[in-house]
Amino acid sequence: MSGSTTSSERAFVLGLDGVPWRLIERWSDEGVLPNFARMRDEGASGTLDSTRPPTTPLAWPSIATGVWPDKHGIYGFQNLSSEYSHEMYTSRDLSQPALWDQLGPAHVGNVPMTYPAREIDGTMVTGMMTPSTDREFTHPPGLQAEIDSRIPNYEISLDYPEYADRPDDFEDAVDDVLAKRRDLMEIQMDRAGDDWQLFFFVYTAPDRFQHLVWDMDRLRAHYAQLDEILGDVMAYTDDHDADLYVVSDHGFGPIEGLVYVNRILEEEGYLFRREDEGTRGALASLGISRDAITGALNRVGITEEALVQSLPRRLVDSVAEQIPGDHALYDVDYDRTVAFVHDTGNCYINDTERFDSGIVSPNEVPELKADLRAAFESATDDDGDPLLVVHDGDDLFPTDEGSPDLVVCGRGVYESRSGMATEIHGETGTYDASHRNDGIVLCRGPSIASGATLRGARVVDIAPTLLHGIGEPVPDNADGRVLFDAFDDESTPAATKVERTTVGRVESDEAVDEDFDDVADRLKGLGYME
């Protein structure tokens, strides 16, 4: 496959969510994963450094666009407003053109953060963050009927809490999802025929499985299935003389404890909870909860979706503030709070320019960031080792003034959580493992070098490398670089200067007014949300 003096004109991205390099290296060396071994022998491979934090909603858009979150616009699962309310990020929030906006025909399947489906030259089946298959989740819309016909009971994701104490049933359910996703890929391959330039398909099953099951025997069996899928994709790309990129958005590893970072802020006097004497506390004392209220509404035919669609957002939020339930943001007294952590480790200083009830002057922010960083880094385990790694938001996201002030990540076997808690330390419960920074990248194709090792590859490097490899220009605002070590010395991409092009910002004024409760429940089941 390597050593050609020409380059491919098309590329396939096979995404494997949450796959760590050390497992691929170990099991391909042992002969358990023969197709991954072929990818390493016949192509270029190495670790792939993720975003900070290393999470799905940041990393997959970075892979697809070649830029960090400050340019593509997605910082987590939930977008925080100046009024402290939050709504789910969607594809409408992606401001940098993705590969499928630059290449065509393109076929995009199950990629996280692609809902609602965009109108592209090709097909799209949305993935993670799709509320349900009752919504329109394909482009063109008629593709949905074909999926219903060929894949009965197709699912976007599983109800993870349902399997908390049933590992055998969970493994069977994950296998079923994997098989149906494989069927979906075949449908899109059938639709693509021979006329395509980009295929971008993601399997999220490994990430979902590993969160709840970190058992090497079970994982080895799951990875063997992934290896079979890889074999099919390798044959497909060979038939179409295409470059193949196998990538994961982040790695994975076991966790031994949770760290509730908002509790650190509370103990240090930076965050204050609302007093229980208010309406919220009174309702709670009467046993009135969000679930009880929505259950009563559903019994008379009124859904949360109907309320959200028919009432102003500000009114919905004001009511939600008073109802006890899973609303960590609504438990904070912002009139006294200096800083808080939202979503996956995003720490915001409650400054007067950013937030409606801000109490911190902007000129105090730099000094306060240093104090907050010291507070987070002072949290240690019983051996005196730090629990957290803290990043400066200005360093990670230099082009966006609205980015988080700090990003707080768990260190080693600890995972940070933003929910309100009474203790800093927490048990992992049903969660066995979680994200690490080191994912995978393996590439193989007409101009890819055999047996090459890629060093220092980052998620933002995939799009520029793919584009240059097939002879297409790279956006001039890309944060990533072309991984020239991947190309054979005699190949066209190795001998060709990177061509640059200007891309416009993706603008979308179209609101996505959806009921994302099912999505939130799935995210909570994986530990992504509180």
TrEMBL record:
Pfam families in UniProt: Phosphodiest
GO MF annotation, one: hydrolase activity
Protein name in the entry: Type I phosphodiesterase/nucleotide pyrophosphatase
